């Protein structure tokens, strides 16, 4: 077998894994496809039979491509004055195959994609490679151009940011998590009575003008009004997941992992007492977001 045929066989065997790595690093199916294709082009021009571990070599190539893309994306974001134009806030129609991307996002988790987007490029690469794909730090070090010890610190720092922590006792956290999940389940099902059951009678909803349609009031009070309003926007619930916001349970709305809204929740006596809907890009960028974990963790 010649070297190109040998490489093609290795690449076809590794393609799904390489694309999965690229997607978790980039959060975009289109960009993951581009990175995978670029990895093939680079590999096909550089491969020789002297390459020992071909899978590790291909992983290194696609990871370096993704790192360059993340760094380029970061520079573009720093240059923007209108944060509403950021890739993460682009409308869902900007992807070539939205159904494929939706499936990918669901498989990874919308909240995880949002939280990964808060990491630096090097942190994201180190975390994804080590924690999600078990790549050794010795290999990661060469990709991020750090020592193995520094690469390990990058992943550790990312891990702390991704998983976060809360000062709420485990039992209280579990109860609050159930309230949030009940709210989301009722919203997705169009269940008015289910929503009324988790909203306090005097609950108040506030929001900014980016988050709310022009005809909606910036402040609304009362469980029924807020439940009815929630059902008019029930499509959002299908792109919503629990998330930690500054250590407190909230909700993120992120179609295909693209951050759109964050709901800050006040919860007391197993009822939601307040909801603040944030859509302004500058405020979203300032939020400390992390995965909420499991109620029994």
Describe the model.
The chain has 2 domains: 161 residues, Butyryl-CoA Dehydrogenase, subunit A, domain 3, CATH 1.20.140; 121 residues, Roll (Nuclear Transport Factor 2, Chain: A). 56% of the residues lie in helices and 14% in strands. The N and C termini lie far apart (51 Å). It has 12 helices and 7 strands. The radius of gyration is 21 Å and the shape is elongated. A hairpin with a 7-residue loop joins strand 4 and strand 5. The longest helix has 26 residues. Helix 3 crosses helix 7 and helix 6 packs antiparallel against helix 7. Strands 2-1-6-5-4-3-7 form a 7-stranded mixed beta sheet, sandwiched between helices. With 297 residues, the protein is of the alpha+beta class. Keywords: Sigma factor, Transcription, Transcription regulation. Belongs to the sigma-70 factor family. ECF subfamily.
Task: Give a quick summary of the entry.
This protein has 297 residues and is of the alpha+beta class. Helices cover 56% and strands 14% of the residues.
List its traits.
297 residues, WH-like_DNA-bd_sf, Nuclear Transport Factor 2, Chain: A, 7-stranded mixed sheet, alpha+beta, Butyryl-CoA Dehydrogenase, subunit A, domain 3
